[in-house]
Amino acid sequence: MKVLVTGGAGYIGSHIVKTLGEKKHDIVVYDNLSYGHDWALLSGRLVKGDLRDKEYLDAVFAEEKFDAVIHMAAFIVVDESIHEPLKYYHNNFVNTLTLIGACLKHGVKKFLFSSTAAVYGIPREIPVTEDAPLLPINPYGASKGMVEQALKDISASDDLRYIALRYFNVAGADPMSRIGQARKDATHLITVSLRTALGIRDHLDIYGTDYPTPDGTCIRDYIHVDDLSNAHVLALEYLVSGGESRIYNCGYGHGYSVKEVVDEVKRVTGVHFPVIATDRRPGDPPALIADSSKLRQELQWGPQHDNLEYIIRTAWDWEKKYNQ
After folding, report:
1. How crowded is residue 163: how many other Cβ atoms within 10 Å of its Cβ?
2. Could you read off the pLDDT of 158-186 as tens digits, one per residue?
3. What is 32-44 written as a DSSP string?
4. Could you list the active site residues?
């Protein structure tokens, strides 16, 4: 199939492109390279463009004649979304409507959407299922939830079929260290911890040690980026086979606290770096763990890298290479 991947030159997008390439799909990456890198594309062709440019996007669709779209392009930093909500609603919601409009105009009826566990806010039950109420507590999660609602409404009035994949905490890197997290301002715990171990940062901040969890720090479900990429390929194959619209959690179904992750990073790297406990960050729920049984049962998704040490080690190998 010919697949358009928006944001495909970014961290997660480049791993999805890698996996699609291994499956011999014809891939076009549409990316403005604000956070992505052309060198991260192990497959496919890059079209440098912005989703705000409706005329250019329309021309790309007219020329390429895509079979499906995987929409990855988004702003993702929770804290930034709280301080700059308009930026997030414009990029994550309005620009996505522009993309969906291009799909409808050009007859592209298969759409994969990169959503997030942040749509749940503070879940009432852990692990959280796809049927849990959407109660986001930050503009990032709200902007993604708005897209999900739009997709639901649009698909009800059109023959567009979509899958929204709600990512939990994505981490790790390509095991051959060809690609990985390349954002210099990355905020994810494992990346920041590893860069502290490398000496790029002088200490690691832990935001909140008084949460209602066993050790007082937040608990998250960490999923290796290659397992997440495989979920996208399975979702695409499901839509191609005639499957109906679906929403899936993407996580392993168990979590680690911030302190547990930091301890494992220290063990894997052999570096005992400074850690400073500080105040909670706005918009952080105490725990987020996926019930991914629906993804496993309906798409026969079987994760291959459900191992915190492996996740950290692949990320560590990448960070050492990227920052040398």
Report:
1. 26
2. 999 999 999 999 999 999 999 999 999 99
3. --SS--GGG-SSS
4. 140
